[in-house]
Input
Amino acid sequence: MIKNFLTQGERLWSRRQLLKLGLTVGGLGGAGLIWQRFNNQSHSVVKVPPIETESISQTIKPLQILRNFDYGQIKQENGRTIREFNLTAGNSIIRLNSAVEYNIWDLNGRIPGPTLRAKQGDRIRVLFENKAGHSHSLHFHGIHPAEMDGVRPVTNGKATIYEFDAEPYGVHLYHCHIAPVTRHIAKGLYGMFIVDPPKPRPPADEMVLVMAGYDVNNDNHNEYYAFNGLPKYYMDHPIPIYQNQLIRLYVLNIIEFDPAVTFHLHANFFDVYRSGMSLTPSEKTDVITMGVAERHILEFAFPYTGKYMFHPHQDAIAERGCMGQFEVIADNEAKNTTKNS
Ligand SMILES: [Cu+2]
Output
């Protein structure tokens, strides 16, 4: 089963851990606060509702994948910032529902693979090790020389290094590019690659949502779909967010076998930053069409508390697992924190 779930050096903070460190806001009661980590250089003051990590029994932990960013190991070489990432392909079995288990290929024990994050102009160095029993590769979207394009097979038991500049800024992705690519992607070898602009985006509660499909009977059609690995997970475990707080979603469609899907948010509209390659939104809508490998930044805030669904508006796809909901909670604590600080 899946191991090494959290990237080394990164963790989610429980309320108990925060209390130990004296970081919770005294006298407010209710939920604790956590500070989301942005770029290693700075710590944002964005407040994020706590996640009940202890109550999650699954081996894939979509609530942790949600806000988990891998900034790599930072090194300085010849005056440049190098971000070194370790990605290992392996095998896992995941449980899609109470009756169905499925063999996947994973990266660092998770599906989707780690969300790699860098700043525009950083040098990226990816140490890729293949322990998945079959030839694989990592092909990054972005601008780089042909020899770093990741289309050559890395045979089982071998490793390689991909090195290139983080250009241009935006929401990108990486995935295996060994034929049949549909199969290699649908079995789990993909992840998001975020390149931050030189001037950081405004603070927000940032999350990653990767839409993917599972073709469990090899008929080139998906039987199940999921956000961040597990079908319907966020329906049963709504994502807590604060009322009136800016939410920044990094959304990727990596569903093979279906030409395109939409992403729809209930009871709200979002600003769209296509491929994350602009600092000004190109449109405002509540449903956006995404072809395979398309990805965008979507920003919004909820004015009312309550539960709100999100899903592709191809409802057959939503009903087969690509469905979740936000739980918008009152931001009394956030207001008090601002007042007291
Ligand atoms: Cu592969």
User: Anything to note?
Assistant: Residues 1-43, 336-341 have pLDDT under 50 and may be disordered.
